[in-house]
């Protein structure tokens, strides 16, 4: 079940039921954004051991302004990662446990009759938070799953004809278990497409698993509390800094080529839409900044391609019993689609020439991530 509904909320301020970051977020540059992103990952690393690459992908999805689906076997740290990111990013955190009897109103909130005032008052649901953990999202019926669609896309919810704005920033980290399909409701393609990325954590190595045990004994308690590295306003500023990062046309066309290749692959019934190409671009840009660069290379696109594209691909029904999967299709097109090569660029153009970039920092790229200046 979800957490209890909140307190009655007045409708006197533009139907806004949750406090948002007020004013204009502070302006920070790419270098500062990269530094803060590294510190966030270091802090989350204290709780989630040995999953730096997966955590980097999740953070890139958040910095790109999207929502992330974490799909893996039980007990691999998905819920812990969501809670840890909420703490490190300084966001309000709420968890909704998705069950077969969960109703849409349990997520969005509902109007409750107040006998003292003789009127209906809106009680906000767990959606009204900075970071929502939608735990085991595939165990609730499609009607409740669909309650998330408007919130994820429009950053608002509509209840009984009244629209309420969600706080900013607002992100959904959802979990799903790819086992025990009995009694589950697979997410429809329309809702899967709303998740910018789907990330898997995988099992830890033997040394990493021992480190998990050692950390638990050292802190002598179950709960692990992390320090807030940034504030919600600073997170918005980091997202704005990434928006100012320019991507070279050849890299953008590479994103388009990869996405288009999913539609013509012989094993695919339905490939990724243009939203997939846009997701590649946005995530590659955020991934590059997290990696400490103000320009994007094809290697950044390749690093996020599986997480962005695999869940948007539907393989042909006759291949469902085989080993063919969306991830396999993405691996195939990464091998076959030509990778753009580095080129000379004129000063003041190309990636990195946007606001906050160092002079000459965006002169081009070399595959592999080396900076290339004229």
TrEMBL record:
Q: Name one Pfam family in it.
A: AAA_lid_2
- The ChlI/MoxR AAA lid domain, residue ranges: 261-318
Q: Which is an annotated GO molecular function term of this record?
A: ATP hydrolysis activity
Keywords assigned by UniProt, alphabetized: ATP-binding, Nucleotide-binding
Return the PANTHER family for the record: METHANOL DEHYDROGENASE REGULATOR, MOXR FAMILY PROTEIN
What family does the database annotate?
Answer: Belongs to the MoxR family.
Q: What is this protein called?
A: MoxR-like ATPase
